[in-house]
Amino acid sequence: MAPELTDLQLLHELEPVAEQLLNRHISMFKEWHPHDYIPWKEGKNYYALGGQDWEPEQSKLSELATVAMMQNLLTEDNLPSYHREIAMNFGMDGPWGQWVNRWTAEENRHSIALRDYLVVTRNCDPVQLEQLRMEQVTRGFSPGQNQQGDLFAESLFDSVVYVSFQELATRVSHRNTGKAANETIADQLLARVSHDENLHMIFYRDITAAGLDIAPNQAIKAIHRVLRNFKMPGYTVPEFRRKAVIIAVGGVYDPRIHLEDVVMPVLKKWRIFEREDFTGEGAYLRDDLAKLIEELEDASKKFEESKQRRLEREARKAERLTAKRLLTSTP
């Protein structure tokens, strides 16, 4: 059996592909500017400059939209960690380094635009937002971490496979948050951001596809490892579990969306279950991915049943409160 390629060998083998995909990305990218998506005329000074500090009643977005948008923003805020991770894995030479810097510059626009929108429209507590940003960025992030918090060895394949799924998941989350906001400017802004995320996903997805052709068994090991331990980068945000429940129940990002809109489209693009070049452990891991998909399907069904029960409880509670108000208001 041929020895596995080192990351340096893979970088060398994939460099022409990276250059081609970088050029394609630049040709497809549509220029935009964060300031064009901010309703500046709604802005006013805060207390430090003689104005009024934020008060809860100033927020116009629903709880779902606010929680989801803040979660998305705090995820984008951890860009220093993401830049460090891909720079360490890709290096800063040639087309790899050009991609790292280009990707970082584009990603930075997202946090700029989302923060300006939320602060100018007063749809969140800016003090709380800044405190959360400080904590989030201080905690940092590494994709090479499993559900128990233990680090596993990262490779070039681990890195590009993880971001192939993560960028698509982020795109879906941004797009669904825009729809949930029920506000035209927020929807337009998040549609613009999600378009960027989609282009980033395509770069990483196609790099991985090329890697699958060069070293299929190494690639499938990384795909299996990443999906078995997958966590969104926002899991380090304080109170992540509570926020994730709100986001899932609200239909912004839930187990079904993760399976059908993120995992399956990428696996199908890579033709994981059609390829015949996996051998030995690689073939076993590919078969185990089929089992993982069944597990994700079961998890989706259980979540949907739990969500339905929760919604029914909330409906009954609302009915009781309405009845109580009617009784107390009756002369």
Automatic annotation (TrEMBL):
Fe cation 2 binds at residues 107, 167, 197, 200. It comes from the Bacteria. GO terms for molecular function: metal ion binding; stearoyl-[ACP] desaturase activity. GO terms for biological process: fatty acid biosynthetic process. Residues 286-324 form a coiled coil. Its cofactor is Fe(2+); Fe cation. Homodimer. Belongs to the fatty acid desaturase type 2 family. PANTHER family: ACYL- ACYL-CARRIER-PROTEIN DESATURASE-RELATED, STEAROYL-[ACYL-CARRIER-PROTEIN] 9-DESATURASE 7, CHLOROPLASTIC. This is Acyl-ACP desaturase. It comes from Mycolicibacterium phlei DSM 43239 = CCUG 21000.
